[in-house]
Amino acid sequence: MYEIVAREDFSDSTFLLEVHHPLLSKAAKPGQFVIVMSHADGERIPLTIADFSPDRGTITLVIQAVGKTTREMQQNNRVGSGLYALVGPMGVPSHIGDAGKVICVGGGLGVAPVYPQARAFKQRGAYVIGIVGFRNKDLIFWEDRFRAVSDELIICTDDGSAGIKGLVTDGIERAIQAHSDIDEVIAIGPPVMMKFAAEVTRPYQIKTLVSLNPIMVDGTGMCGGCRVSVGGEMRFCCVDGPDFDAHQVDFDELMSRLARFRKEERRALERWDRSDNCRLLQEDRDVSD
Amino acid sequence: MAKKTIRTIPQQRTPMAVQDPKQRVGNFNEVALGYSVEDALNEAERCLMCPKEPCVQGCPVGIDIPGFIQKICDQDFRGAYDVLAEATLLPAICGRVCPQEDQCEKVCVVAEHLEPVAIGRLERFVGDMAVAEGWANTPDIDPNGYRIAVVGAGPAGIACAADMAKAGCEVTIFEALHRPGGVLTYGIPEFRLPNQFVDAEFQKVLELGVKLEANTLVGRLFTIEQLRDEMGFHAVFIGTGAGYPAFMGIPGESLNGVLSANEFLTRCNLMRAGDFPTKDTPLGLGRKVAVIGAGNTAMDAMRVSLRMGADEVHCVYRRTKAESPARVEELHHAHEEGIVFQWLTAPVEILGDEHNQVRGLRCIRMELGEPDASGRRRPVAIPDSDFEFECDTVIYAIGTNANPIIGQTSKLKLNKWGYIQADTDQCTSLAGVFAGGDIVTGSATVIQAMGAGRCAARNIKAYLGINDTVDMDISDADRSRIFGIDARQKKFTRVRLPGQEHSAGPA
Questions:
Q1: Strand, coil or helix: what is B151?
Q2: How far apart are CA B126 and CA B58, in angstroms?
Q3: CA–CA min distance B277, chain A (Å)
Q4: Domains and CATH numbers, chain A
Q5: Is some CB atom of chain B closer than 8 A to the CB atom of A217?
Q6: Candidates 3.30.460.10, 3.60.21.10, 3.40.605.10, 1.10.1060.10; correct CATH number of B21-133?
Q7: Model ipTM?
Q8: pLDDT in tens, B269-328
Q9: Residues 7..36 of A with a Cβ closer than 8 Å to B: which?
Q10: In chain B, whose CA is at the least distance from the CA of A269?
Q11: From the list B221, B282, B404, which residue is nearest A264 (CB)?
């Protein structure tokens, strides 16, 4: 059991868990991920490490409640409870090179996993341009953290309720126009966002990295479920990635593979929605309202 | 008692009851039901107790086979277990999954005239009885202060850990998954090896004082070098296996509905996808399944597919039944259950529909040409013989490659295929670090991995100077104070007598 020591709810669907695991907090590096099982009958899901603190002996995960497993976690994973399994850090750490000027892009939940990279670049003395995108003002989280490690921060919202009105791609375009000397772009978010981020930087031939999060079981190279096509070659995201050259990734294939269990996911979610658990969650919310 | 001869023993090998094929494809219960006491007594009578004992040499872990069979003949089943337990803690597992026909039974003297003694079935009989009765032989262990790290809780790691613990070391097994057993747990299906036996026999390893650290990815959480240099382990054994599935590189492998046998079996066996949605892991199996390959893993994947509700399951293999690497028994069971075998057939493309879902396979017919390096006749494509074949799930069971994590994270020397370089003593390029099983040899069998684990244990003891070899006549000693690790060779008999000096602990 891995104890949850802190939790923060950013919105109706997004929440943060800080989990006690001293060894993992020491070993984790930017760009790596963990596999979590919330209970013994649960599935193994990959989650990117959003932060790690060797001093506190914890790692931080930011989770969006979209399917059965994550909704159940949203309901059950309270401070003082624990995760049944937590294993990592997995994947090849991000290469934090000596780039002089970088753009770190986080779309929605992707703000969390790109944060350690932004911080690492800042610590190495790079000029960091942070670009974070959300649907609206209410969904914004970690603006302060991001601001602390960015030399410039561009906030983008779909509806213009905060920052500039537009997508992160608009933010990237704006940053590139303002700076002719961008060495590297790191973009993390939903696959479709990463796909279009790659298209923005491609004409400028700016090195662009994305962090992929395909379906996987073990996360150690054993199942091969996480295979992705990069430059026409099959790679296993769990051991060859999760960072890949955005200009080489076949995003359409990735999105299609992410929909592999759509039918089963819907079935699990409907069953969850009908269950007592969910009603309890609803009542819980009504009370707190 | 008159000496048994080939003429006086029961001529027919005692058959083992099996679940009816029609019935069993609808459940995950065990297929082979095991021997009754009468069956076991009858079969045990077939052993000639020959002085040559070629079977013992044929066993990778050196079980005293005539010894335990004699105890069965004497109806001393507990005694039979004691003999087995000297060499193996896992008789219920090995009795089921060892390829005995290529090992002990292959060299059985009876086999020169009749069918060999069913050694594996007898081993299973005793192992099952031990689990049912809760028999355990916990040896008298003297701690020697040495700490051993074992990486991987599969067959190689378990065997090595058990021997090191018996020798008095403090052993910790690190396992990346949330449950121990390695391929025994995630790979081999319930109907061939029920997990209760894996759990029961692994429990015996824990009873030796071995600690299990699950959810621990060695290499990334800490490195092999850290285990040895910073974490206070005097020696490290790596038995991480070769579970890194191979694909063919043909078009269509990224389509939904294409998966490795590893993924398929892990979802079903470890994660219990059959119980979805009660359990959370989905499987997404179609109605018509094609499994590429014809080894034991392929047989497992096909037979699990049937049990998970597939209407039709095809085996696509580029050679013939004669070249198939699967055990004869597995092929037979698969055939009985209605698997359709497409021998001399090689896939060249996986076909998809507009939703990127598999809709079929394009295959080509093969014929056998000259023998290749493996001695098997090389399959050669017949020109213009390609054809399309409808299916909605394609499972790859064409073998595995070396897992790259240890290589990525340590300075260990690897060979050109990425497997860890180890010599015949299982020593790697790093002092104090040993490796064995599939991560050294490439895909092999459970018992070969166990043999490698035991071999490594011997060499770790030599490396650390643990001297638990005592030259003595064990019949003279108080047996309750002795336990044998490899009693046949009288090598690892550790004796504790008052005032006796033990091998020195760590400096």
A1: strand
A2: 20
A3: 6
A4: 2-90 (2.40.30.10), 101-258 (3.40.50.80)
A5: yes
A6: 1.10.1060.10
A7: 0.90
A8: 999 988 888 899 999 888 999 999 999 999 999 999 999 999 999 999 999 998 888 988
A9: 23-24, 27, 32
A10: B277
A11: B282
